[in-house]
Amino acid sequence: MGEGIYGAVSYYPDSDDQVYLIGGDYSWQLRDVNQLFFQFEYLDDGAMIINSLLGGIDLETEERNRLLVGMINYELDDFSSLQLNTTYSLDDGSLMLAPGYSNQVASNLDFEINGGFFIGDEGELFGSGGRIPQRMVEVKFSYPF
Questions:
Q1: Count of beta carbons in the 10 Å neighbourhood of residue 126
Q2: Are the C-beta atoms of residues 75 and 81 closer than 8 Å to each other?
Q3: H-assigned helices in the chain
Q4: What pLDDT digit, counting tens, does each position of 13-49 carry?
Q5: What are the pLDDT digits (tens) for 59-91?
Q6: N or C: which end of the chain has fewer CB within 10 A?
Q7: What are the φ/ψ torsions at residue 53 (nearest 5 degrees)?
Q8: In a 3-state reduction of DSSP, which class is residue 77?
Q9: How buried is 92 (Cβ within 10 angstroms: 0-12 exposed, 13-18 middle, 19+ buried)?
Q10: How far is the C-alpha of 95 from the C-alpha of 69, rounded, in Å?
Q11: DSSP state of 32
Q12: Domain regions of the chain by residue span
């Protein structure tokens, strides 16, 4: 069990702008097996790093983005977990929800399924249309060696 508060400032010379982040987290054990973890952040993104966080989806934004980001992770057992990530734009009210499930299927074989739901009007940061789908699914197996 524990909690924390953190912050960061980054400068990106390519965009000649800063990124500010402040956040907090809290976790606790349930029934001595399951862990529940919460993380909340405020991100003031002047360097458009949001595009790198979305795995290749280009939001086509040139403006500073002010975002609230939250994550809840629940460990079902030692090998699997459920997760929900949310990102809310303070500038236009659009929202991204990203649920996920991960499981260690066998020794060194991991399985993940992640989703993404983009809620907003066209022209908003997470609005559908253009390069942004309304929803997406990613299925991944990985075998580290």
A1: 25
A2: yes
A3: 50-53
A4: 666 677 888 899 888 877 776 788 999 999 888 766 6
A5: 666 677 899 999 999 998 889 999 999 999 999
A6: C
A7: -80, -15
A8: coil
A9: middle
A10: 10
A11: T
A12: 2-142
